[in-house]
Amino acid sequence: MKKILALLAFSVTLAHSAPAQQDPKAGKILDQMSAKYQALKAFNASFTQTLENDAAKVKENLTGDITVSGQKFRLKMKGQEIINNGTTLWTYMKAENEVNISDYEPDEEEVSPSQIYTLYKKGYKYTYVQEAKEGGELCDVIELSPEDRNNAVFKVRLSVSKADKSVKSWKMFKKNGNRYTFTIKKFVPNPPVTAATFTFDKSKYKGVKVIDLR
Description:
Layout: H1 2-6, H2 24-38, E1 43-53, E2 58-69, E3 72-77, E4 80-84, E5 88-93, E6 98-103, E7 124-134, E8 137-146, E9 153-161, E10 167-174, E11 179-189, E12 209-212
Parallel strand pairs: 6-12
Antiparallel strand pairs: 1-2, 1-11, 2-3, 3-4, 4-5, 5-6, 7-8, 8-9, 9-10, 10-11
């Protein structure tokens, strides 16, 4: 589970120190972005995740699709499906036709896809960097730096659309030389969702092996 989410989200350790001086221009943009996402009942996004490490000569691309509603999400990516209804986590592996069921225990060292729009609010300094075009769209680029110096991540860059304040991409820089870039390819606000959207229905997976780890 953590291995998959590490390709989607930032691995962080939230600091408990006093708030640092923040860049007001960056803060205003981040607040507008956060308000946009928190006003949605749900959203769906298709994405590309790229892992690069120059020293190791690594470049890997993954694609996926995620539906998010509050703290709930359903993620489809590279032969796996991960479903979280807020209390239970299902991890389905297509090749094995197997699903692992566990209690959902939020990890404060990991930011899930449902938390990206509030990441900056605790444990980070943020600075406005520049304007830049992404996919032909003008964006504000904002840099986040963890206040905890022991964090494996030393920098995160967010690109926020100037037109509608949506997140277009983010890039995570880790001390081990890995760079993770998460790019939104398609975004759908308020898709129809029900409780069933965030539940694993084994009747739809013929012959699935169920391993309950709770």
